Fold each of these.
Amino acid sequence: MMAPELIEAIPKSGQMGIVHLGLGAFHRAHQAVYLERYRQRSGDGEWGVCSANLRSSVGLVDGLRAAGHRYHVAEYADSENITLREIGVIEETLFSGRDGAGNWSRDREVLLARMASADTRVVTLTVTEKGYFLNPASGELKVDDPMIIGDIASPQQPRTAPGLLVEALAQRREAGIAPFTVLSCDNMPDNGKRTRQAVVQLAEHRDAELASWIASEVAFPCSMVDRIVPAMTDADFERLAALGISDSNAVVCEAFTQWVVEDTFSQGRPDWEAEGVEMVADVAPFETMKLRMLNGSHSLLAYIGALAGIETVYDGINHVELRALLRRYMLEEAAPTLEMPEGIDLDAYADSLLARFANDSLRHRLQQIAMDGSQKLPQRWLSGAKERSAAGQTSPCVALGMAAWIRYTAGHDLQGNSHRVDDPLAKRFAELHQTYGRDPSALVAAYLAMDDVVPSALAQDEAFAQAVLAAYQALSHGGLSEALAAL
């Protein structure tokens, strides 16, 4: 294989029209790449990015600062076809979480100043589902969460993404500056509407007039984002080193990328259309399609595969029975719940997803996908299963997925190997397994009774509950083969 040509970043502009909350790998491999490509084509220097980490380590922030805020993205069509890009659109990185001593970083004030500045016209977010502090089942703000309680008590020292948005918008309103547009890029249904819900509800605890102003004046467009961006491994860094790239901040991803955005921006935006961004009037059909078919399949493979000791998506998709399960789930349970615009071929979309999952260059770990299941599964599986239940239809693939998720949260696979349960409700899961672990019927009932995860209408569907229990027992007694055979 010949080394791919490197597409270098253009010189820094110094102008920051965008503030981003959530300086993670996905942001750097998706939105930042679109912006870099836009600047390469147009020469428009008005849309540099100030990107902030809110809660995770300061290491990435410092690493990018040391590198002059430049890093590399390796886009793999497969192991032989690679595009290397140097990204320079991020002009500043900030850390607004707690330092090693437990004190809140001084960068928080810098971040708020950036967000309150008239130069900032768009604030984008990739903070994951849990970063909005919304009940996954009801969509209401978690006013009993300690972080939200802190933001209510001290709104001018915000701890959360909603809190930062409220405080920055309050400062702009006080200064007579028009509000920025808030663009969520997280995998949530109606992500713009849900972001608006979190921000407005939090603002209501501070000032009813401020909340009303945000509700009426701030644009919260919805968006759908799609690109597989695995967590970096030592093997990834070694592959890049073989191509002449030594960069501790580098990201690897698939070549495929998609971004669908509702075109409601109050303060202008980059001309993204030229880079393939689909600016539409209604994102919802695309968003739901991706959540239920791509993300739902990922989660199904993650929990079932991880229990069987399968490490990556690539390994899982090459398991004949699991590949068949994913296709069945997509076409028989997910696709029938979707209402798509004319011309969208869901059979072809399912086949394209299976092909993407089979990309031999990506080491997308199932344990990474399995994180935060309590926050993801309501929109990936359960909303569709609820619709099918209301129509008198069954969802056996989702029932198996729920059984696998319940079993996964015990903290060990079917061979007894331990794994970390990385979820905001991990403590509750441990208590449920401790209390009901010897009684599968009671354990499944306790999980389905969690109304902050499982819609009550679905939990009350006796056929669905029995299907989850039967799948749980099949997994526990006969492993993966028996559970799949039972379908």
Note: The two ends are 43 Å apart (CA to CA).
Amino acid sequence: MANDIAANLRHLPGEEAAKAVAGHIDRFWDPRMRSRLHAFVDAGADGLDPLVVAAVGLLRP
């Protein structure tokens, strides 16, 4: 699902795209989903769009 969000927001320039993905995840994903996404990135993010990885970095406290 995160890769689909990134694909839909990729038209935005650079950092703005990562911020938009992070904003979507922050607004619409429940805490369990966000937690699993963080764990997936920590485990290597195999198959995850680099834009999503950048967005997760923006979500970290």
Note: The radius of gyration is 10 Å.
